[in-house]
Amino acid sequence: MSSESVESFRHHESFRQRHDGDHAEVNAPPAPAPERPVEERIVRDEGRAICVWDTGGSGPTVVFVHGNSAGKNSFENQMGSPLLARYRLVALDLPGHGRSGWVPDYGHQLYVSALRCVIRELDLKDVVLIGHSLGGNIVIEAMDEIPQARGVVAFGAAPIGKPPNVAEAFLPHPSAIAFFTADLTEEDLRNWAGTCFMTGFPAPDHFVKNIRATDPKVRACLARDVQTLRYKDELACLGAIRTPKALWHGEHENTISLKYLRSLGLAGLWGGDVVVIEGAGHSPHIERPAEFNRLVDEFVRSTRPAANS
To answer: DSSP assignment, residue 160?
Structure first.
């Protein structure tokens, strides 16, 4: 395995205590103790450094993919969850984000390649892919390239076809232009939180830090990709997926249109429809972590080992 272990750490006691209650919300077998180490390591995709958190362990592996200008630390509520301690959990910083390397150009295919690389280099089997926002688009596009995948979840995401129906897929929001703007003002950074969290919900400390740590070219390249159709037809990708697939949506989401998601008429969605998470906005993994983790556990247990794992 051509990966470089660069750091190991255990979650602080305060981090563990934030998640002690989420195992009580589901009738499931006892989970292992939550104090297992989470290792931070670097894997390389054609020389490009990709920074990864990995809990190790056995059982199915859940791979979390973050959104635009975010980072793997947005999944700290999942990595430290006792309920999810029965699974191997992996989260990565996409290229240009967090502690991963910056490169001359970015795009959907680069992110799919980075995800494939992490799965290959860590020798992951029986993988469930879970992506937030842009990460949701990426995991949908990656499914036909990852035979080890046994299921996929996109949340806070609008899968788009070709050409994209942007006006229907996304709700109008005055701050949304920042998602595709390279150079952001301090006001842009503050307003971004208004698109990602419910009114009154305090953005976590890492939120603005992650945006600042992101290569500004990432956002400009995302705008170019949508304008020039440099992405897979995600509606066709979803239609071709034969393993369990789910779309999750925050009740108070103010970026993605629930009406649009339901208008797609996607057959075979887990739960029979788009799953709406009550009391959450664009970021239910942060706003409602116990409920989100319960859904993750329920989804993973509904999947079966991939035929090619």
So the answer is: -
Q: How many CB atoms are closer than 10 A to CB 58?
A: 10
How far does the chain reach from its first CA to its final CA, in angstroms? Answer: 17
Residue range 91-102: average pLDDT? 98
Q: Which of 83, 128, 136, 138 is nearest to 106 (CA)?
A: 138
Cα–Cα distance, 250 to 275 (Å, whole number): 8
Asked if residue 147 lies in contact with residue 308, where contact means CB atoms within 8 angstroms, the answer is yes
CATH of domain 3-302: 3.40.50.1820
Q: Where are the domains of the chain?
A: 3-302
Q: Could you tell me the pTM of the whole model?
A: 0.89
CB 281 within 8 A of CB 70: no
Q: By three-state DSSP, how is residue 269 classified? A: strand
- pLDDT per position as a tens digit, 222-258: 999 999 999 999 999 999 999 999 999 999 999 999 9
Largest CA distance in the chain: 49
Cα 281 from Cα 254, distance rounded (Å)? 7
CA distance 174 to 161: 24
- In the block, which residue shows the tokens 């939180």? 193
Alpha-carbon span 57 to 139, nearest angstrom: 22
Cα distances (Å, whole numbers) of residue 146 to 10, 11, 48, 143, 211 = 30, 30, 20, 5, 29
Helix, strand counts (H, E) of the chain: 12, 9
Residue 233 to residue 303: CA distance in whole angstroms: 25
**Beta strand 245-250 pairing with 149-155:** parallel
